[in-house]
Amino acid sequence: MKLPLENMGLQVSLAPILDVSDVDFSPETLEASKAFVVTSVYASLRIAGEPSACRTVPIYAVGAGTAAPLRRAGFTCVHEAAGDATSLLDLILKKRNPSEGRITYLSGWDITEDMARALERHGHDARRVVAYRATPAKSLSNATRELLRRGDIDCIVFMSYRTAHFFTALCEEARLSACLQTMTAAVLSEKVASGLDRKGWRKIRVATAPSQEAMIDILASARDQGFQEHSTPL
User: Fold this and answer.
1) Local confidence band at 58 (pLDDT 50, 70, 90 cut-offs)
2) CA-to-CA distance for 67 and 61, rounded, in angstroms?
3) Is the CB of residue 34 less than 8 Å from the CB of residue 102?
4) pLDDT, tens digit, for every residue of 16-29?
5) Phi and psi at residue 56, to the nearest 5°
6) Alpha carbon distance, N-terminus to C-terminus of the chain
7) Please, are residues 180 and 52 in contact by the beta-carbon 8 Å criterion?
8) I need a surface site. Which of 13, 37, 122, 180 has the fewest CB within 10 A?
9) CA–CA separation, 132 vs 48, rounded Å?
10) Could you tell me the sign of the dihedral formed by the alpha carbons of 109, 84, 136, 199, in that order?
């Protein structure tokens, strides 16, 4: 199956910067929860992979990419926000009354904002349950190092602050930071961009909205302006 960027005629390589591992949680978490909040694909996959999870339970996803695995798994009450924490909180507060029962925020070990605490401030019975842990890779892959050295990458895609931050550190460790001066970074938000060395890139392009569609628009625009057909999502 082709990646969406390959359907645009781009040559794509994947360079994982975070190693993701599951964190065990009690099945009672699913049973006691009347709704779930997810802000990452990994959290969605944990719910989707639980055979005992009710397919009609309301789930509030931060964006389209996070919602997709749940819909593919047959969940029928998935609500989708606009791609950031603010729109997600607004969506939940609009759709759900505190009297409807516990909301569980299924998250990673490291988070930017605790949605459970935000909901508690608005009177909801909410709690956070850690479902996975994402630890930084120890080094860049050999293939990625070679692509950087040869200057074969035109654009690198960053979807989170942590991937941007740790990629920057791994490039410094491998003494490859100078290679980035000929490349463009496409980032999901200003927060993500803050994980990069802004002076170390040819250009940093920030999405107009925190969504996959906005990121694809960046790459389509850059392609139409003539960059070579290479892109590396992180």
Assistant:
1) very high
2) 5
3) yes
4) 899 999 998 887 77
5) -110, 5
6) 19
7) no
8) 122
9) 14
10) negative
Q: Are 198 and 204 in contact (CB under 8 A)?
A: yes
According to DSSP, residue 61 is labeled E
- Rounded Cα distance between 218 and 148, Å, is 21
As a whole number of angstroms, the distance between CA 92 and CA 165 comes to 30
Q: Which pLDDT does position 7 carry in this prediction? A: 72
Which ranges in the chain belong to alpha helices (H)? 4-7, 28-32, 41-48, 64-72, 85-95, 115-120, 142-150, 161-173, 190-193, 212-224
The encoded tokens of residue 232 equal 């590396």
Burial class from Cβ neighbours inside 10 Å (0-12, 13-18, 19+) for residue 217 reads middle
Residues in the chain: 234
pLDDT digits (tens, 9 = 90+) for 139-184: 999 999 999 999 989 899 998 899 999 999 999 999 999 999 999 9
The closest alpha carbon to 234, from 172, 129, 161, belongs to 161
Residue 31 structure tokens:
């049973």
80: tokens are 């989708």
Residues 6 or more apart from 24 whose CB is under 8 A from it?
Answer: none
Which residues make Cβ contacts (< 8 Å) with residue 96, sequence separation at least 6? 35, 58, 60, 103, 124
- Predicted pLDDT of residue 229: 43
What tokens does 28 get?
Answer: 């009672």
